[in-house]
Here is the input.
Amino acid sequence: MTSTKKDPVLVVLQLSGGNDALNTIIPYGDPLYLDNRPNVRIPIGQVLPINDNIGFNPAMAPMKRLYDEGNVAIIQGVGYPTPSRSHFRSMDIWHTCEPDKVGDEGWLGRAVRDLDPSKENVLTGVNFGRGLPRSLVAPGVPVASVGNLETYGVLTGIELEEQRTKALDVFSRVYSPMIGQGPVLDYFAQTGLDALEGADILSTAPGMYSSSVEYGGDTVAQYMRNIAQVHLAGLGTRVLYTTAPYNSFDTHAGELANHTRLWTETSHAVADFYDDLKEHNAGDNVVLLVFTEFGRRVHDNGSGTDHGSGGVAFVVGESVNGGLYGEYPSLETEKLLEGDLHFNNDFRGLYSTLLERWMGLDAQPIVNGAFEQMDFI
Here is the structure.
C-alpha cells in the first residue's frame, strides 16, 4: 500500500529585538496595566478581546482571526530561569538551549541532523535572511541560507547560460580536490558543494509557484512567501527559518507607532502564509513557531520600553490545538522580577513539544534535558 502521510514541517519566525509582550497580548482587564503604562499603552477600547482579562493588539486582527478559528496557540510567560537582558546572550540561549554556558550547536541544527543523518538532502533545513542563525548551526549539517529566492543561486550575474555553466564547472572543481585533505578542508569543500547543489534546486521553486494570496512588500512578508514557495515545491525541506529585520522589535523609543507597524506587517504575513498553504491544501503538515528573545520592562520609559524577561510566543497551524497555554504573568510589584514579568513556561518545554509531538524526534538530547510539554499538538 502506498503511504499518503506527509512529513511534518516546522517553520520558525524569529522576532529579533525583544517583542513587547505586554502590548502584544494585552492584560486590559488588569488596572496595573494602565498604571505601569502611562504613555506606551493600547487604549482599552481598541483591544481585540480573547476573554475578560486579555486580548490581542488591534494591529493583530489577522492573527486574531486564526485564533478564533482554533489555529493559534498562545504561549504565555515564555522564558527561562535567570534571564539575560542582552540581545546576544538571550538569543544565544534560545538558539542553543544552553542557559549556563555558551553553546556550540543550535537546537534546529541537531534536529536537522536527526531528520537526515545521512545528509541525503542538502535542503532539509533552509534559512531566509542574511547570515545563518545559531539555532541552525551544527557541525556537518548542511543548511541553505537564502537572501532572495528569486535571485538565489551561484554566479547568477553571468547572463549567458553556456558561460555560466562553464564557470560553475570551474567553481565545483575548486572544491572537489579538497576532499580527503583533512577535516578543515573537507568541511569547506563539502560546504561549497552543498551550496552549489542547494542553489541549483532552490532556484526552481519560484517558477513552480502560483497563488491568489498577495503578500505585503515588507521583508517578513516576502520571506514568508519564499518559505511557502519552497514548501509547495516539494523539495523535502523539513525546517524553514526566517528572522524579522535586525533588532526591529527593539522598541526603546517611539514604540506605539513602530510596534503597530511591526505587528500589522507580521500579523498579515503570518495570516497570508497560512491562507496560502490552505489554498494549496498544503498546510496540514506545517506548524509555525513565532518567538522573540525576551519581553520588555513592565513600566514604560516615556516613549518606549526597555529590555525585560518573560515574553509571549505563538504556534500557528491547521494541526494546532489553539488556545492559551500557561498563566499570564502577574503584574503585581512583589511578583515581578526586578521590574520584569516572570516566566511561567520554559521555552525548552515549548521546543520539546514541537520536536516530539510534531516532528517525531527525541527532544531530550536536542534541548539538553527533560521539560514539561504542552498540549497544543
Remarks:
- The first strand starts at residue 9 and ends at 14.
- The longest helix spans residues 255-279.
- The chain has two domains: 9-150+214-367, 153-202.
- Residues 153-160, 164-179, 184-193 have pLDDT under 50 and may be disordered.
